[in-house]
Amino acid sequence: MVGTAKGLIMWYSRLFFVSLLLALVTSPAWADKCHECHKSRDFKVTNKKLYDYNVDFEVSVHGIAELECTDCHGGDATTDNFERAHKGVLDPVRYDKVPETCGSCHEEQHDAFVTSDHYKLLEKDGSAPSCVTCHGSMDMDFIFASRVKSTCQFCHNHESETYPEVPGQADFILSKINIIKGYKSFVEAHAKDKDLVKDLAVAYDQLTARWHSFDLDGVEAETRELLGEYRQAKAQAMKDRKDK
Ligand code: HEC
Ligand code: HEC
Ligand code: HEC
Ligand code: HEC
Ligand code: HEC
């Protein structure tokens, strides 16, 4: 619950402060008719796909963080009228709009992504991955290295001859990031030097955001460097734990 509350505070304070205040003043509860209608169990029989989308959403990081449908889709969440509710709901999730839609909350990833060739291609003709290619859309989840490798291979392979070395390099980087993640939780649990813990966590967030630039050589170098720093911090944290 703490993580959820923190996440909510983060984006409310950044972007939705005004609308939150308005909502508090003008209505007693969230007037989210979208979710209210979409969660109906009747759809399990009448529109299974629609039902599944909703279930996927509810158990996703975004569902748990209590995002509203309108955060990504727009539309009018105050009405039961089908036409009015759905006006324009597919526009913000069109492939070329997705980076901006997601980027309204995930600014660092967005800002790195727009520097990549992928972004330019996506805007031009859709021939590159967008946020949802790797993260899913309604079923938003953490990413797994194996899934990313096969995602890259779809376009980067020896037949297409466009950067066939890319999937291997991406896999290498992500496997190192996974090791860092393991060290990170150990260090956060046991290290005495809390300033170092904080600095390393900031560097970690910057690294995973930078990944989205697809400057793989630069990201690989930074990954190796941070792995070295975490390795040291972990050795120290093991000593700290023994000393306790
Ligand atoms: C209204 C704000 C908002 C929008 C729009 C949004 N997200 Fe999120 N996202 C969040 C919050 C809040 C979390 C919960 C974790 C957190 O606190 O960062 C989250 C978590 C995530 C995570 C898991 C990362 C982690 O640290 O656990 C990914 C991946 C993600 N979002 C991708 C996306 C993508 C892709 C889109 C666009 C389809 C998107 N988000 C749109 C607010 C948003
Ligand atoms: C009164 C019930 C109801 C409300 C309110 C409602 N929806 Fe829907 N929505 C549906 C149904 C039913 C469908 C499936 C329509 C179909 O399959 O043709 C649907 C379809 C959709 C689709 C897919 C559109 C498409 O063309 O395939 C999206 C996206 C969507 N809704 C989002 C929203 C959002 C966002 C809101 C609130 C702003 C909302 N809905 C409010 C019942 C509702
Ligand atoms: C974090 C952003 C985000 C949130 C929040 C979100 N969606 Fe979506 N939704 C998407 C994206 C992105 C797509 C994918 C479009 C695609 O695959 O082309 C999508 C697809 C859909 C579809 C299928 C549309 C189609 O093409 O058939 C439906 C239905 C839908 N959403 C309904 C909802 C409802 C209802 C809610 C609230 C309970 C909601 N969404 C919340 C991002 C979001
Ligand atoms: C080609 C695949 C790919 C694309 C495209 C992509 N991401 Fe990511 N994303 C990743 C990987 C890999 C990670 C790091 C995974 C990890 O943390 O282990 C990540 C991490 C994240 C995180 C969480 C950072 C963290 O702390 O772990 C967020 C939020 C996110 N991405 C949002 C986005 C948004 C927004 C877009 C579009 C602008 C996007 N991603 C596009 C693969 C992708
Ligand atoms: C939908 C197709 C598609 C997918 C999936 C895809 N790419 Fe790409 N990527 C491209 C295209 C097209 C280019 C540009 C090729 C050219 O310039 O000839 C490109 C270029 C690149 C470049 C070199 C250009 C730059 O921005 O530095 C890198 C690195 C790259 N991709 C990494 C990845 C990684 C890593 C993944 C998987 C996580 C991935 N790509 C997935 C289509 C894709």
Nutshell version of this structure?
With 244 residues, this protein is mostly helical. It is 68% helix and 0% strand. It folds into two domains: 2-92, no CATH class; 142-243, no CATH class.
Describe the overall structure.
68% of the residues lie in helices and 0% in strands. By secondary structure, it is mainly α. It folds into two domains: 2-92, no CATH class; 142-243, no CATH class. Helix 13 (166-190) runs antiparallel to helix 14 (194-210) and helix 13 packs parallel to helix 15 (216-243). The radius of gyration is 21 Å and the shape is globular. It binds heme C (5 copies).
Following the backbone from N to C, one meets helices and strands in this order, namely: HHHHHHHHHHHHHHH
Gross morphology is globular
What is the terminal-to-terminal distance?
29 Å
State the total count of DSSP E strands: 0
**Relative helix content:** 55-70%
Strand content is: under 5%
Please tally the helical runs, counting DSSP H or I stretches of 4 or more residues.
15
Mean pLDDT, as a whole number?
86
Structural class: mainly alpha
Poorly predicted spans: 1-29
